[in-house]
Amino acid sequence: MTNTAAATADSPSAAPTAPAAPSAGGNPFNLRVIEEFRANAGRVGGRFAGVKLLLLTTLGARSGLPRTTPLVHLEDGAGRLVVFASNGGSPTAPAWFHNLTASPEAIVEVGAERRAVRARLVDEAEHDALWARQIAVDPAFADFRERALRAGRTTPLVALEPVTPSH
């Protein structure tokens, strides 16, 4: 994944297909969220009730297998969905970010809709404004950002842009 275009996989056909069963690398919490999301056309309860969630299915960088992760997202108004590789403020980026770095083609589920996307790093000119918007929606993201900065890591923001199949 580069700032301007996909580094690999020039064809949308390289994007993973969402698995029939959830696959969250064995994380029981994420598996429950994925199952609830799919059973209710994108709506989930509990601490994620009313939160804008999507399911991102990437190809595992090492395994090559589809990996699905529920993520909070921000709609930017330009047809892109922006996700934050904060990993809760951890000093390391989340696995899904490493997967997109290896192969930027992915599948996104928003509500009951599924679509192919290509990941692109958000450029520096947009970075702070998108962070400010997300923090206004969910103040916990300010803590995630600060913890990552204290750990010496700038949190990448990733734009998931729709891929139009070529004819």
From TrEMBL:
Catalytic reaction annotation: oxidized coenzyme F420-(gamma-L-Glu)(n) + a quinol + H(+) = reduced coenzyme F420-(gamma-L-Glu)(n) + a quinone
Disordered as annotated region, ranges: 1-25
GO molecular function: coenzyme F420 binding; oxidoreductase activity
Database matches in InterPro entries: F420H2_quin_Rdtase, Split_barrel_FMN-bd
Gene Ontology CC annotation, any one: plasma membrane
Biased composition (Low complexity): 1-24
Gene3D superfamilies membership: Electron Transport, Fmn-binding Protein, Chain A (2.30.110.10)
UniProt xrefs under PANTHER family: F420H(2)-DEPENDENT QUINONE REDUCTASE RV1261C
Family: Belongs to the F420H(2)-dependent quinone reductase family.
Protein name: Nitroreductase family deazaflavin-dependent oxidoreductase
Protein's organism: Streptomyces albireticuli
Organismal lineage: Bacteria, Bacillati, Actinomycetota, Actinomycetes, Kitasatosporales
